Each structure stands twice: as structure tokens, then as C-alpha cells.
Amino acid sequence: MGVGIEVMTLNAWYGANHTLQDINLNIPANHATALIGPSGCGKSTFVRCLNRMHETNPIARVTGTVRIGDLDIYNDAKPVEIRRRVGMVFQRPNPFPTMSIYDNVAAGLKLNGYSNRKVLDEIVEKSLKNSALWDEVKDDLKKKSGASLSGGQQQRLCIARALAVDPEVLLMDEPASALDPVSTSKIEDLIFQLKSQYTIVIVTHNMQQAARVAEKTGFFLNGRMVEFDSTHKIFTNPSDKRTEDYITGRFG
Amino acid sequence: MRARMRTATDGMATGLAILSTVLVVAPLIAIFIYLIFKGASSLSIDFFTKLPKPEGEVGGGMSNAILGSAVLLGLASLIGVPIGISGGIFLAEFGRGTKLANAIRFTADVLNGVPSIVMGVAVYALIVYHEKHFSALSGGIALGIMMIPTVTRTTEEMLLMVPHAVREAALALGVPNWRSVLSITVKTASPGIITGCMLAFARVAGETAPLLFTALGNSNYSTNLNEPIAALPLQIYTYALSPYDDQHRLAWGGALILIVLIVTAVSLVRYVTSRGVLKGAS
Predict the structure, then answer these.
(1) Which of B68, B182, B233, B279 is deepest in the core (most CB within 10 A)?
(2) How far off is chain A from B110, nearest CA to CA, in Å?
(3) Class of the CATH-defined domain A5-95+168-247
């Protein structure tokens, strides 16, 4: 089951660059929340702060509080524990090139020392079914490399890989921006199904996509969160002039 | 007119590329043909099974040198490959940008340029001189040290070629950094790392100079690491300088076998590693 995310006065830096300034936000459990905004506005940095991937960059720094469920992720836990609870799907599909489809999905469990064959088989099947890839790959799970799939299939493989470690939250950083329209709509269908089980945060450049998949939408601009409200309100009657300018295509 | 010009330019460029390829491959083929011409006639069952005959007598083989080379190269790989790969992993993954890493990289590059005879003398001074006897162990150490810089630098380069996205994928799954490096990054780079090891192996397989002061040579079988041991390049060197025709004959045979062994070892490893890679992997 998903859990809610509570963000209080989050600030983040890359070197001297203050990329996120005083972000306050409550992301509801078991819903999809979209983050929109022009390039470089900080939305990717923001999701990377939610699973502590931001700090893997040696020049990056972060302050503030993020609660995922009951867990204060910057004070109560190690990064690796948080990343198991908060899955992530990246902009470009990044399957492990030397691994089979099966091993790609099982990677998170295997690399954390899990080796019960029967349970792994079940989890791999379940995760691939959840990511709507099972029917396309079930016959060559161990024969084919993850890199041999098409771009859209690779991205669903990456979603399966993230789901296999049984996270509570799924972060998606522009998951469909490198895909064709058919693959994109498959990913969107998937988000629709997954949000009953997981809390989903999706960064997107595509405003129609945000409108299609998310109940809540946040608009980021220059490292600040300008507006956060129900998707319907953001796209029909935003409170802030800048949001309106952005969604009507006046800039960005 | 223009189309014809383009075709002509294209033809010229292709011709140049083919010519260059021939020039690259020609020396190897020439050496190989010459060695077969000179050495094939002396290859017999005896060559692989018999010990060398005393000087002046006809017949005998180089079985001791073949065995000795195998022992020395095995020892060298046991030393050079793990140290080299660990060094490369440190440079690419853990020490990036640190002073220590820069110092190691510089040392490896210098070590790579150290003439092999100097390596032999150094190991002689450090080990043989104190132990007061020549030994297979010291020979293996000399060859092993020579393998380290090549293995380290190729490992580093291959690891740096692994896309950042692949590392991030592992970290985002909650895999600890060390585990991600060993199980994902190194594994992804492994074909290149293995090629680097093979290059280092092939390079030291033919080394004579470092063995002159360390392994020394032995006209009998030996697998005792504390005794002098025979080696193909050493035996070739000794025989080529000798005044006896029959030893010249053996030297040619030895040179042929040495080349065949290196080509076989490299092809075998390439074959085995390429089979391990799944279909469609990029």
C-alpha cells in the first residue's frame, strides 16, 4: 500500500546553485501526483530528494524535512533503506545491459541478498504482470537481454524492476519522454492501474499527460513551487498568474 | 559529373582503408608464415613430451619450457589480474578525483613504460638477492608486476564507459554502492576488462628479459616455485644464441608454439566470454 509524503521547507543545492527553495508540499497516498514546469525548474531535483538520490552527486546538498509515511527519511534511515521503499523510474529506460529480462526484474532483490528461487519466480511474474509486460516477454525471460527489448518495453521492464522490491512510493522522472505515442499511452494506462497500490509522483513536460493521469498537480518555476492543487483546478482555473501563463503556453 | 566525383572519392577512401587494414595485418601474417616455414618441421610428439638433449646431441623437446611458461604465466596472472582489476576499480569508482588516485594513475603509467629488463633487475634485487637463489616465484612476480599497469588502466577506462544511468538504476533500487559497483558496473564492463587482461597476458607471455634474472631457466621439469624454472622465451633466447643447428631448430619450433599458445589463449577467452553474453545485448 502507498503512503503519503510530507515535505517541509526543503532546500537543495548543486554546488552554489540553489535549485530548490523552501518547498512545502503534501502528496496524498495512493494517488498520482504530477509535477510540471519548464526545464531546469527543479522538478527532477525535487523527486530525487524524495529517495535521496540527489545526494549521490558529490556536489549536491539538501536541507529540510521529508516524511514518507512515518519515516523522516533524512534523519531516521539510511539512503539504501529509503530507496527500497521509494522506487524510481528514469527518463531514459536504463535496464542492466548484461542481464536477462528475468535478472533485470529480480536485480533489486538479488543484489540485496535475496535468493529463494521460488519466491523470486513469483515476484518476477507478478511485477511483469503489474507492468503489463508479462505477455510480451514470458517466453524468453532468461533467453533475452533486457537491452534487446524496444524502448517502450524497456521502460515497462524498468517499472517492473522498481515494483519488484515492493516499494510504497513510485517516482517517475519523465518516464515517457523518450517514447513513441503508443508506448506513452501504455505507460499512462499503467500509471492509472498502479496508483491504487502505490503513491505515484510523476514529473512530466507534457501537460496533457499530467491532466490524464494525475489527481493533483504541482507547478514548479525557478526552484520554487508556485502552485499545488487538484489537477482540474490547475488546468482550468489556476490561482497564480504564472501558472496560467505556463499552461496556456505563453512561456516554457 | 558530381555523382561520378563522389563515386571516385568514395572508391579512393575505401581503397585507402583497405590498404591500411592490410598494412596492419600483414606483419602478423608474415611472422606467422615465416615461423611455420621455419618451425613447423621441428614440431613432433617429442617436442611436446621430451626434455632437451644435452648440447650437441640431436633430438629432444621443450616440454619443460612449455610447462614452465604455463606455471609462470599462471602465477603472473594470479598476481597481476586481481591487483590490476582492484586498482582499476579504485581509480574509476572510489578514488575519482582524489590525490591518491592521481598518484596511482601516474605510477601505473610510469610502470607501464619501465623497460622489462629493469623490472627483472628490480625483482632480482628485491627477492632473488635476498633469497640467494633464482626461483619460479620471483619470475612470476616480475611478470605479474608487468601485467598490473595494463590491467589497471584498461579496467579503469572500461568502467568509466559504463553509462551513468546504469549506476543510478542500481542505486535507486536500494543497492549499496559497493555492491552496485561489483555486481553491476564491473559486470557490465567485464568484456572490456577481460580483453585488457588478455592483452597484458599476451604481452608478458613473450617476455624474456625479466626472466633472465629471476626464473633463470631449467633443463628439467620443475613445478617447485622455489627453484629455477624453464620458460619458452628463455629457452628460445638460449637456443637462438647457441652454435648448434639442432638447437636453432628447436628455437624456431618454440617461437611458433609461443605464438600459437598466445593466439589460442586469447581466442579461447574471447569465445567463452562472448558466449556468456545474452542475445541482443548491446
Answers:
(1) B68
(2) 30
(3) alpha beta
C-alpha span between B63 and B46 (Å, rounded): 8
Residue partners of A41: CB distance under 8 A and separation at least 6 = A220, A221, A222, A223
Cell of A95: 535496464
Asked if B243 reaches chain A (Cβ–Cβ under 8 Å), the answer is no
B10 falls within a domain? no
Closest listed residue to residue B181, CA positions, set B156, B200, B198, B199: B156
Best interface-test mutation with A: which of B175, B278, B279, B282 has the largest number of A CBs within 10 A? Answer: B278
Count of other CB atoms within 10 angstroms of residue B229: 33
Which candidate in B98, B168, B173 is best for mutational testing of the A interface (most A CBs within 10 A)?
Answer: B173
Q: What is the CA radius of gyration of chain B?
A: 23
Residue appearing with cell numbers 517517475: A172
Check: complex ipTM more than 0.85:
yes
Within a domain: B264: no
CB contact under 8 A, A97 and B282: yes
Predicted TM-score (pTM) of this structure: 0.84
